[in-house]
């Protein structure tokens, strides 16, 4: 627990207030004493296939990783000491566990979930979209596209918001105060790019999605950006090669592409982040 305070509404506050709610802010940590559930034979086979499709020699675009991890976890609170209220009522400590009855994921909950039908295949591409809280159709907004890695392919539409902060970091209040923007984060049902430079039709659908969004929202066509890690990095490269004038800039993280094909992007605004010794980025 990082903070405990009273409030008159079930929400966070910089400073506590007298009220009927107790706000407990927690930080998730790994339980070193936790005993993992023993996997079944079906679980082992599923993991073996998933690992093979997440970067191994057998990785093929268009395959599912089976990304079905659950995010985020539930919170349990136990009262270990007596609590005395301001009007003199005491609540004795007890060992009963109090389970959360509702969950709230800050920033991620501000995204709306929608679906786009590919004009090429008729298949559905689910995606998350964030609009600035004071969105005004009369104002032109930049758009940031975030593409997740292979780890959550085929997961629930919101998994790309929970796995990391590649999408939510642009929608945080501090980020929006500096650079107000629309954020779009698709959830791909399959791996979109493999390690042998093969890619799926979902990237053409993503380009079509961005063009469709420009007809429905007030987006500045000169300020559309793409970013993503690993598979998301490579997917961004494919779309930049397909549509050289679509993106104003790209933030590429921990990915790779055939150097002999990168020539057309030599005038593009690209910021590349990779780790020394990362073989997945060695060809970027």
User: Which stretches are low in confidence, meaning pLDDT under 50 for 5 or more residues running?
Assistant: 53-59
Output the CATH class name of the largest domain.
Alpha Beta
- Tell me the name of the CATH homologous superfamily of the largest domain: Alpha/Beta hydrolase fold, catalytic domain
CATH topology title of the largest domain:
Rossmann fold
- Class per helix and strand makeup: alpha/beta
**Number of continuous helical runs:** 5
Which word captures the global form? globular
What would CATH call the architecture of the largest domain? 3-Layer(aba) Sandwich
Give the proportion of residues in helices.
Answer: 10-25%
Describe the structure.
The protein has 284 residues and is α/β, with parallel strands linked by helices. It has 2 domains: 1-35, no CATH class; 108-281, 3-Layer(aba) Sandwich (Rossmann fold), CATH 3.40.50.1820. Helices cover 18% and strands 23% of the residues. The protein is built from 5 helices and 13 strands. The protein has helices at residues 41-53, 159-162, 173-178, 202-216, 231-242, and strands spanning 3-7, 21-25, 76-78, 83-84, 90-91, 97-99, 112-117, 124-130, 141-147, 182-186, 219-229, 249-253, 270-273. The strands form 4 sheets. Strands 7-8-10-9-11-12-13 form a 7-stranded mixed β-sheet, with helices on one face. It has a two-stranded antiparallel sheet with strand order 1-2. The protein has a two-stranded antiparallel sheet with strand order 3-6. The chain is globular. It starts with a strand and ends in an 11-residue tail after the last strand.
